[in-house]
Amino acid sequence: MSRAFDPETLLIGVMGRPHGLQGETSLRPYGGTSDLRAIPSLLIESQGVRREWRVRSARRVAGGWLLRLEGVESRSEAEALTNAPVRVSRRVLPPLGPQEFYVEDLVGCRVETEEGKVLGTVDSIFWNGAQDVMTVGAADALPGAAGASDEGQLLIPVVPDFLRLVDAAARRVVVAWEGHD
After folding, report:
1. Domain limits for position 52
2. How many domains does the chain have?
3. Same domain, 14 and 87
4. pLDDT tens, residue by residue, 40-87
5. If 154 and its partner were Cys, which of 1, 19, 106, 136 is the partner (CB 3.0–4.6 Å)?
6. Residue 148 has pLDDT above 70, yes or no
7. How far apart, in Å, are the Cα atoms of 169 and each of 94, 121, 128?
8. Cα separation of 45 and 49, whole Å?
């Protein structure tokens, strides 16, 4: 799955399994994906090709969404999309306010302390039940990096107490990490 930063699109989830026989399929969103009923089309990456699919209908269900996409009329057509990454054009998303960012954009960012010590790169984001958490890995593989934990990764909450700067375009996150090295 392509989790690389793309300034034109945002990765929002992955296609799930088909639902029924008429081409309806599920979408498992990452994080708090906004209301898909307001998004006219999705970009789905299947077999190395990114294609735009118009959304005919979307309805919220436990754990995600059930979708009807134009051109997907059978269970087998829906099955072909299973596990495919799903993106949306950033143009259809609400504008971000000052100091706002999409959590998914943190993946791949270099993480450093306020003092400039490199901690590593954001490998993934997960929800721990209270907030999003960045998994920052392999700090020792980066030039000028501070030490990583015994497991080779750090877990940093995505909350104001830790985040000092998020510059998704520059692929950089600055965190308050004094005494945590």
Report:
1. 9-92
2. 2
3. yes
4. 999 999 888 999 999 999 999 988 899 999 999 999 999 999 999 999
5. 136
6. no
7. 18, 15, 26
8. 5
Say how far apart CA 93 and CA 114 lie, in whole Å.
Answer: 31
Instruction: Return mean pLDDT, the chain.
Output: 85
Query: In the Cβ-directed half-sphere of 37, how many Cα atoms lie within 13 Å?
Result: 5
Examine residue 180 and state whether it is found in any structural domain, yes or no: no
Provide the pairing of β-strand 25-29 with 132-137. Answer: unpaired
H helix or E strand, kind and range, residue 77: helix 75-79
Cβ atoms of residues 67 and 26 within 8 Å = yes
Q: Is residue 149 classed exposed, middle or buried when 0-12, 13-18 and 19+ CB atoms within 10 A define those classes?
A: middle
Closest residue by Cα to residue 81 from 13, 16, 1, 36: 16
pLDDT tens column, 103-114 = 888 999 999 999
Query: Which one-letter amino acid corresponds to residue 63?
Result: G
C-beta atoms surrounding 169 within 10 Å: 8
Q: Which two tokens stand for residue 15?
A: 């296609």
Query: Does some domain include residue 65?
Result: yes
Q: Do residues 87 and 112 share a domain?
A: no
